[in-house]
From TrEMBL:
NCBIfam families: PRK07394.1. This is Anthranilate phosphoribosyltransferase. GO terms for molecular function: anthranilate phosphoribosyltransferase activity. It is an enzyme of class 2 (transferase). GO terms for biological process: L-tryptophan biosynthetic process. Keywords: Amino-acid biosynthesis, Aromatic amino acid biosynthesis, Glycosyltransferase, Transferase. Residues 1-30 are annotated as: Disordered. Its EC number is 2.4.2.18. Residues 1-11, 18-30 have a biased composition (Basic and acidic residues). Residues 138-337 form the Glycosyl transferase family domain. One of its GO terms (cellular component) is cytosol. It holds the Pfam family Glycos_transf_3. Residues 13-75 form the Glycosyl transferase family 3 N-terminal domain.
Length: 352
């Protein structure tokens, strides 16, 4: 593709979103997809890319623009295929720049879900601007499980065998790694950070769960996912914009299944799960309280039970939240979730 032609084409996209409050226009889904593809392939100049990200950040991406960006990630990114014998997985969309305020719950809740036969798809990256929070990779490493430095074939095989897949950007999507310097240099999350919460490499039917902080974000995400044709969606006002459900307060969530929308009020007090959201300190402390939780003990155990119980219910493995909570408690206190972790560690060691 002629470089000058690509830069001129990108300039047209930039004009649409960067003209100002009264003259700026949103891109179509197709135009947004084209803009991100040009960026990933390095066609625009660095000045154009930086201007695009800042302009988009200020005016906020519209739902069809987010859908277009997801289209490009689906086109150029890695693909994880569904095994017909597997239960439909839960695909978690969490911020790529990690957690820095509250202790993550999801690695432990995921072990409970896997123990119940529920497949899980995750995606993430290495330490990422602007937050540089703790990553999924680092958390599982702290538990003794390395989920990185695997080929996509190895990830696919592990998904089929054990029901867990981590799509790791440095390993599986090097094109997207080229955007990291822009995140650092502009000092703000670019629009792709919103899109990453909606994209999954999984091909086939699944439950897609995405977190948010501000209510307008939920509306944009829901509309974008509907444009993309996602049939089973959960949006959660989670901790730090992720999918971890707090135990310190009532949480709002929305479940859309085959165009049927249901608003959920998740009240931990109602299920004797209310408590304090544990503050993030460091990986050593997190590992200690995580291993305690895998024995059904310690300050993180209640949050793990609450989260796993809700997700077991949303995945229809449990008939109710109360039933899900009971199953989660048994998984921890019996040592079954910990045994699931050991099986995964053994699988990973056999690959090396």
């Amino acid at each position: 593709m002629n470089e000058n032609f690509s830069q001129e084409r990108f300039k047209n996209h930039l004009r649409k979103i960067g003209s100002g409050e009264h003259t700026s226009h949103g891109m179509t889904r197709k135009e947004s997809a084209d803009a991100l593809e040009l960026i990933l392939k390095g066609s625009p100049t660095p000045a154009q890319i930086g201007a695009f990200f800042i302009a988009h950040r200020i005016r906020r991406p519209e739902p069809q623009e987010l859908a277009g960006m997801v289209d490009t990630y689906i086109k150029l990114g890695p693909k994880l295929h569904q095994n017909q014998e597997l239960t439909q997985p839960i695909c978690f969309g969490m911020p790529f720049d990690g957690r820095s305020k509250t202790a993550p719950i999801y690695p432990l809740a995921i072990l409970v879900l896997l123990d119940a036969g529920q497949p899980i798809v995750l995606h993430g990256a290495g330490p990422m601007p602007v937050k540089y929070g703790v990553t999924t990779e680092a958390l599982f490493n702290a538990l003794g499980l390395c989920l990185t430095k695997l080929s996509m074939d190895a990830v696919q095989n592990g998904f089929v065998k054990h029901g867990l897949a981590l799509i790791h950007q440095p390993d599986h999507f090097p094109l997207a790694e080229t955007l990291i310097s822009y995140r650092e240099e502009i000092g703000k999350r670019p629009p792709v950070a919103s899109m990453e919460l909606l994209w999954t490499a999984h091909q086939g039917k699944h439950l897609l769960v995405t977190g948010y902080v501000h209510p307008p974000t939920e509306g944009r995400h829901t509309k974008a996912l509907e444009i993309l044709g996602e049939q089973n969606i959960v949006t959660i006002k989670g901790l730090e914009g992720g999918t971890d459900i707090p135990i310190s307060r009532t949480t709002k969530a929305t479940h859309i299944n085959n165009n049927h929308e249901k608003h959920l009020i998740l009240d931990p007090l109602q299920y004797a799960c209310q408590g304090k959201d544990i503050r993030w300190e460091d990986l050593d402390r997190w590992r200690l309280i995580s291993m305690q939780a895998l024995n059904g003990e310690g300050p993180l155990a209640k949050a793990v039970v609450w989260n796993a119980g809700i997700y077991l219910w949303l995945a229809k493995i449990s008939d109710s939240i109360a039933d899900g909570i009971q199953k989660a408690e048994v998984s921890l206190t019996s040592g079954s979730a910990k045994a699931t972790l050991q099986q995964l560690i053994k699988w990973r060691a056999e690959i090396d």
